[in-house]
Every structure is written in structure tokens, then in C-alpha cells.
Amino acid sequence: MRYLSPKLFVEEPDGHCRLVAPITHVIAEQCLHWAHSIAPHAVHIARMLATHAKGEIRPTTPRKHIRPRKYKRTRALGLSGTVTVERIIPDHLWADVAPLLPPAPQRRSVGRPQADNRAVLAGIVCAGHLGCSYTKIPPTLGVSARTCRTRLDTWQHTGTWPAIQRVLDDSDHLRQLRTETTRT
User: Fold this and answer.
1) pLDDT (tens digit, 9 = 90+) per residue, 139-164?
2) CA atoms of 91 and 167, how far apart (whole Å)
3) For residue 144, which of 112, 177, 170 has the smallest C-alpha distance?
4) pTM for the complete prediction?
């Protein structure tokens, strides 16, 4: 049996306390053993919760081996100057796209308001047409990568995306932006 001693702890300058070797190595070695010991209890509790839950609950199959994610290079948007929603989706292009979008869902009284469709479309255009990755969507657009992906999925699910895609593909403005990103 091991006992904890003050030598196994270090106080950081900011006041946080942390463990140091060799106790960190012992804990790391024991984690797998603890997981195997705790797993039957976790399954038992999950089954108890499932029997009293409403709706359908599907059991998951345990993963035997989790593969590490492959590193994916992210690419920033190659436009010079400030990137704004109006620069990516100008008024004449927005006038063509706006009627194609499904109506916005009714506003709930609580929660964050829904992101602007024009700003979301600008983020999707940056990622899909201008070659930057979703994680590098310019913050000046005011939308997150998750919002852009979710809205794109919604538009694809409702069947409005192919018509929007045709308008974007036929746009001379986006062709000019694309050539500007390849030059920089």
C-alpha cells in the first residue's frame, strides 16, 4: 500500500496544486485496470436508467480500439483585406439566393437568436467555394464552423441547396474571388 506524501505534489505560482512523478505514472498504469473494474457497474446503471426512460434507447456496441484522428491540415482564406459578409455575398447575389432559402423557424422566447442566413452562406462559400477549411472561417463573418455545417445540412435535407449551389456556381463575383484567393 502506498501513502501520499507532500513530495508528490507541487504548488504552481498561480496557486494550483498538481501531482508529479512517480505518482502520475502509477495512476496512468492503473487507469486501464480501473476502467475494467468500473465498466460492469456503469453498464448496470445504464440498464437501470434505460428501463425507466421514455422513448427508444438503443444499446451501443463497445469499441475495442479507438483509432487516433489523422492530422488534417487546415487552410486559411487567402483573401487580402477585411473579409465581410457583404464582400463575400454582395447585394445582387443575395437578392438571387434569398428567395430560395426556406423560411426561418419561429423564434423561441429563450435562447440565442438564429444566425443570419447571409452570414452563414458567406461562411459556407468561404469553406466550400473559396477553399478555406471550416475551422478557418474568418471571425469577421460572425458565424462559427458548427453553425455553417449545421445550416448546410439543413438546407441539403430540405432540398434547397442544389438551387442555391447553381446560383453560386453561375456567379461571376465568386469566380473573381476564387481567382483572387489563388493569386495570394
Assistant:
1) 888 888 888 888 888 888 888 889 98
2) 14
3) 112
4) 0.57
